[in-house]
Amino acid sequence: MKNVHIFKNNFDPKKVLLLSDIHWDNPKCDRVLLKRHLDQAMEMDARICLNGDTLCLMMGRADRRGHKSGIRPEHNVDHYFDAVVNDAIEWFSPYAKNIDVISYGNHETAIIKHQEIDVIQRLVGGLNQKNGTHIQTGGYGGWIVYNFKRSKSAGSVSYRIKYYHGSGGGGPVTKGTIQFNRMATMVEGADMVWMGHVHEDHELTYQVERINHNNRVHLKEVLMVRTATYKEEYGDEKDGYGAKGWMVERGSPPKPLGGRFLILEPIREIINGHEEIKVKAYTYRAQ
Questions:
Q1: pTM for the full model?
Q2: What class is the 4-285 domain?
Q3: pLDDT in tens, 238-274
Q4: Is the dihedral of CA 226, 232, 235, 237 positive or negative?
């Protein structure tokens, strides 16, 4: 299936940099911070996944959200969409060999709807062609599966991530956490649920009761992860944080910046005489 992405690994720990809502072409994107996090991922040989709104693309001629200060000078050209995608291919190419998936967010799907251009397909295709890589194009939602195999005959274990870019506004009090409750009622089999969209940053742990194919009941942790953004919309030191802008006018609070690193550690345990092969997992905020 197109939106199920399976990656096979040996039985060693793995790191994955989880990014969403980069808004790379927006002048307010903190590219210095983004580059630092991507460079860290390369140094530790971490995989990289992008969960929507990698591009902002609000400055098209017919876009009512567009304004002069929202476009970078190099993209202020007649072939606006081409300029953004081509520059993004060049900028992300040093990291292409570690990128597993680039999926859609509402900014990219809006361009398909209103401009009839699939910028994610063009970005992924361009990166793969330029770098000889095999980055997969995700959906707005889907699954990322990291499979860990002990040996040819000793079995394997998988860590299953349900990704979904997100919906709604997040809420100033709940900060989007209530949406994890909704996902828990409609998604089964996930070890982690990962969303972005509302530009918040947190990890919650849900403990659930499950019964396996041998009718043994066990408890399992499910991580609920939200990754933030790289676009600072609350102002800057020059004009004053909280002085003006769309975020200030609508009464939204400042948002955290950055992604999260996911650590996956496959382990073997003996519990009540039964061998258990599982994956220990946790995330931490990229610094």
A1: 0.93
A2: alpha beta
A3: 677 766 666 666 667 889 999 999 999 999 877 776 7
A4: positive
